């Protein structure tokens, strides 16, 4: 089966008309995207969008052989004129299946939001799933029956990463599934940044007019097994770390800060983090990271090493100069070496967050300078064991490694 993407953008296209945002200003020429529409083997058109016939011609195809036009969007489709010779667009009721004369079978998939998804099975048995913007398949809650896998998934990966997580949880998306992001809007800058974010989810984007062969292996970068995300206060490092795992199921969020009873400001910070995380994630509040890293299991998001170090320095008496000189430093070095060894040996996917505090004002106290120095050493040692290291500055992620 071949799929030609006549457009890969959001319903309003990219850039959006009359939008003055920075992303729309950058989304020109090769970065411009028409509203998403798919032409399958020249016989099936998923979503009729403005300029579809011209887009097909630019891609070297014709809509003359289209036997069926299906709508996926929450409404009845874009208000566009139906080109001469095309059948009237329709929507298949959820759960119903239709068969084209070409042998393609199309089944409507119920969504958890307005709109309709479609599973298309080609004459050769290859399967693709196309999801509307802002939607995820319904009925894929925890404990759902494992699904038959797809060869290709085309979905709103940026807007609904949890849809990909749900599909992975039931086995519908596996390591060989080609995940292609569509309905791309002005949420992410084009070019390197959108490629980086999608690669972290095991997905990719392609330009408008691209023809893809379903079932053909694509060399999408593997999701790094170990990632360290660094950044200053309120830099966006935690958001970046969470974003990297939001398309995967059963993530264990490891909070190293504790509850700090009576500290209302800290409680507010914790609540903000929890509200931002997917509801399917579990949380563990602990600084005992080595056993978690040694276990097999779901991906870990450890936030953060800075608070882990504070706890470790508390436990060895590092704030007292006499204790520090009389074995405290050696004890901390052993704790750090144990952690670094666990990061090196882990088989889990791990994203670690840490503060970058060595680039600012020199602390006024000896204990503050000690903490700054030790955190720098921890970050360097853990970063050396990670396939990817990022530095987040003003919400922008700079790739240092990987």
Overview of this protein structure:
The structure is a single chain. The protein contains 10 helices and 18 strands. It is of the alpha/beta class and 402 residues long. The strands form 3 sheets. A 7-stranded mixed sheet has the order 14-13-15-16-12-17-18, sandwiched between helices. It has a 6-stranded mixed sheet with strand order 5-6-7-8-9-10, with no helix packed on it. Helix 8 (305-315) crosses helix 10. The chain is elongated, with a radius of gyration of 25 Å. It starts with a strand and ends with a strand.
The portion of residues forming beta strands comes to: 15-25%
Give the count of helical stretches: 10
Mean pLDDT: 90
Strand order of the largest sheet: 14-13-15-16-12-17-18
Tally the beta strands: 18
Order of helices and strands: EHEEHEEEEEEHEHEEHEHEHEHHEHEE
Q: What does the largest sheet look like?
A: 7 strands, mixed
Strand-pairing-aware structural class: alpha/beta
- Amino-to-carboxy terminus distance: 34 Å
Query: What global shape is seen?
Result: elongated
